[in-house]
Specification:
It is built from two helices and six strands. The chain is 56% helix and 19% strand. Helix 1 runs antiparallel to helix 2. By secondary structure, it is of the alpha+beta class.
């Protein structure tokens, strides 16, 4: 009888070890799946932001055209369309990059150099040639500038 109890105890211990192994394996699988889900959510968010940036960047040329034509055309319909474009950009948190006179390679693209004038520093921004925009922290289009030699 005692021998039978020993066999049952050993069998029970083996089953408990197997149960612990399966529980641990389940916990690892659950953690792996949770990490996968989080990674997919982050990628989806990144893809969405990238697609929005691509579309909004394409619209910036149209906004520039409206901005240039604004002084020449005195039409209420024109003004409404231009305001609608600006409202669309605001909705997606697209703002014009403000110029402070200091060249920043993360925000500016130097496309030409001009001779230094008195009181100006070499490498400082001489003139803004095209406005730049960003969406949050992402630069959609850098400010195109001329810098002093």
């Amino acid at each position: 009888m005692e021998e039978k109890n020993n066999i049952v105890d050993e069998s029970c211990q083996a089953e408990q070890l197997e149960l612990q192994r399966i529980k641990q394996q389940y916990a690892y699988l659950q953690a792996d799946f949770d990490n996968y889900r989080k990674r997919m959510e982050a990628q989806r968010s990144q893809w969405t932001q990238s697609a929005q940036a691509d579309v909004l960047t394409a619209l910036l040329d149209i906004v520039d055209d409206f901005d240039r034509a604004q002084g020449d055309i005195n039409n209420p319909a024109f003004e409404l369309i231009f305001k609608a474009f600006k409202k669309l950009l605001q909705r997606f948190n697209v703002v014009e990059i403000q110029e402070n006179g200091t060249f920043d390679p993360n925000l500016h693209e130097a496309i030409m150099q001009t001779p230094v004038v008195e009181g100006a520093k070499s490498g400082a921004i001489a003139q803004v040639l095209q406005k730049g925009y960003r969406m949050g922290t992402v630069v959609l289009r850098p400010v195109k500038v001329a810098v002093y030699e």
